[in-house]
Amino acid sequence: MDFSSPISLIAVFAVVLFVTIVSLTARYKRCPSDKILVIYGRTGGSSARCIHGGGAFVWPVIQDFAYLDLRPLSIEANLYNALSRQNIRVDVPCRFTIAISTEPENMNAAAERLLGLSPEQIQELAKDILFGQLRLVIATMTIEEINSDRDKFLDNISKNVDSELKKIGLKLINVNVTDIKDESGYIEALGKEAAAKAINEAKISVAEQEKIGETGKALADRERDTQIAETQRDRDVKIAITQKNKEISIAQAKKDETVGIAEAKKD
Length: 267
Description:
Layout: H1 6-27, E1 28-30, E2 35-41, E3 48-51, E4 55-57, E5 63-69, E6 73-83, E7 89-100, H2 104-113, H3 119-139, H4 143-148, H5 150-165, E8 170-177, E9 181-182, H6 186-266
Antiparallel strand pairs: 1-4, 2-3, 2-5, 6-7, 7-8, 7-9
Helix pairs in contact: 3-5
C-alpha cells in the first residue's frame, strides 16, 4: 500500500480511528441499578472508585473493574443462652436482612473488604457482627424490657448492628425477632402474671359497670315512682276540685230554686 497517497493516509486514519472508538467503547462500563461498579488500579489516590448508576471508562492496563451485588441477604441469627442484665439466660431467634450500602464512604469500605467475596462468605462475615452486637444489647437490658418494650429492644439492636456493619460497607435493612424464651421460665411467668392481672382488671371493670347499672336502675325506678306519685296526686287534686265545683254548682242551683219558689209564693 502506498502510504504517500492521500487516499491511503485517509484509510489508515479511518482504521486507527475506528479501532480507537471500538476500544474506548469496549472499556466504557455501565453500572446496573442493582450493582456497584468498582474501578481499581490507578484511581487518583484512593484504593478504588465506586459508582452506583451511570457508567465510567476503565482505562486499559492501568485499571480494571468488578461489581458488588446490592441484592439483600437474609441471615438467620438464632442466639441461645445470652445473658441479660439480670444474669438470666435467654434464647433470642432473629432474622436480619442486610445489603451492601450505597453511601459513598460505605461503598469504599465495601470495595476494600467485600470485593471478591461470595454472598455466603459475606453472610458468614456479617454473622459474627450480628451475634456480637445482639449479645451486647441483651446484656444491657432486663428481661422485662426485652419482653415488654419490644420497640426499644429492636431499636437498640438496629443502632448497634448498623454502626458495626457500616465498618465493612454493609447496612441493616430489617431485623425481626420472634418468640423470646429463657431457661428459667421467667418470661412465661411474666406472661401468666400479665394475663391474670388483665383478667382481674376485667372482672373489676365488669363489677363496677354492673354496680353502676344497678344504681342507675334504682335511680330510674325511684324517679319513675316519684313521677307516678306526682301524677296521681295531680289527678286526685283535679278530681277533688271538680267534685267541689260540682257541689258548689248543685248548692247554688238549689239556692236559686228555693229563692224562685219563695218569690213565686210572695206574688
